[in-house]
Amino acid sequence: MKAPEIIRPDSYWQKQDEIIGKEALATLQLEHLTKSLRRVYSNVPFYHTRFDEAGLDPENIKSLEDIRRLSFTTSDDLRANYPFGLLAVSKDEVVRVHTSSGTTGRAKAICFSKNDIECSATLIARCLVMTGTGKGDILQNMMTYGLFTGALIMHYGAEKVGALVIPAGPGNTERQIQLMRDFGTTVIHITPSYSLYLASALQQKGIDPRKDLNLRRAYLGAEPYSEETRKKIEAIYGIDVYNSYGLTEMSGPGVAFECGYKNGMHLWEDHFFAEIIDPETGEVLEDGQEGELVLTSLRREAMPLIRYRTRDITKIITGVCECGRTHRRISRILGRSDDMFVVKGVNVFPQQIEQVLMGIKGVAQNYQILLESYDHLTIRVEIAKELFDGNIEHLLQLQTEITDKVRADILVKPKIELLEPGALPVSEGKAKRVIDNRTM
Ligand SMILES: [Zn+2]
Question: What spacing in Å lies between the alpha carbon of 153 and ligand 1's midpoint?
């Protein structure tokens, strides 16, 4: 395989600590962490109490590990302190608020100072430059503009690197296609599920994205997806797809991002201190072990969060990336500890099922997991049109193949329903893959 080109232009945001030795990084992290802890101790009653309870004096932090004495900050803490309870600056310093919606309960409000916005944009700029986007690129931003950070922060970062940004937002597929053709879009920022939906819409119009569009790369985020799905999208569009990771609570998108080697996402450790924990016990795990990502923001002004439980399941990839960047990498998000469901006593992430489905020939893009009881699961799978119209024998073979492969992976035998393409509801935003009709 040809090694991807390492893009490292001499631009100011690249010089900011991107290539940094391990010791220098630890020193830098400790310096920023200490400042941040002092600020929250003085300004945020919630953290003041936490420090006192742990017997931790922010004037006396000796190492990064000292924060392990503090308990975790959770999304419930954010909700309980909604909207301004966790502010570490005066309200006058806040220039923007984003909320992070949960499917249940109160929203979480995340406040940004002017400098926080600048930091977030700078981080995304770093990610874009790393993957080759810059002046001359036309970036069609199909994420939701609004209370969600995904689109706005990407927008700011893309402008920073000199790309032309089309603030399309999600949905309205006809118009998306028109914009892509009229402006010669080279980069798209999109959810995985919408990129698949868009691909089938293009196909229906007789547009071959490989030949008839000008696309070079896509940034996928906002929902977890499998490596198989990435390969599928790359093949359909004839582009490079880069995985990105972010969350509003930290800075928006661009907390971690893939380089040209597409072998895990570099987590920008000069801005975030990462730990991986066992989601059940809270114990800190070694690099290489799978668990929940816990992040501490090192440079945020308005609302620094200490040991924030992201609920995202991943692991630190051991070893140094071939690109030479020293920031450690996290693996693609396996799922959210919230999304995980239990069937027959087995923990299952929807992405495990997706990974299996997308590797089976004849399976189309859309699927749904239906939970009706605690010992049974049904997977509804759309299959290729020609198969659906074809021989019943082939359908039965496919059904058996899917059943066996899913069972081999998740250790529970699913019931498989094959559907014709278009039978399942399509999403123009985040896909809802799991329908849980179970009652406690
Ligand atoms: Zn790399």
Answer: 22
Domain ranges of the chain: 1-337, 341-436
Residue 8 burial (CB count, 10 A): 15
Q: Which are the contacts of 217, defined by CB distance < 8 A and separation ≥ 6?
A: 131, 132, 133, 186, 187, 239, 240, 241, 242
pTM, to two decimals: 0.81
* Confidence at 8, pLDDT banded by 50, 70, 90: very low
CA of 76 to the centre of ligand 1 (A): 34
Inform me whether the pLDDT recorded for 103 exceeds 60: no
Query: Could you say which architecture CATH assigns to the domain 341-436?
Result: 2-Layer Sandwich (3.30)
User: Separation of 254 CA from ligand 1 center, angstroms?
Assistant: 14
Which amino acid, residue 330?
I
CATH architecture of 1-337: 3-Layer(aba) Sandwich (3.40)
Q: What is the pLDDT of residues 51-84, one digit of tens each?
A: 999 999 999 999 999 999 999 999 889 999 999 9
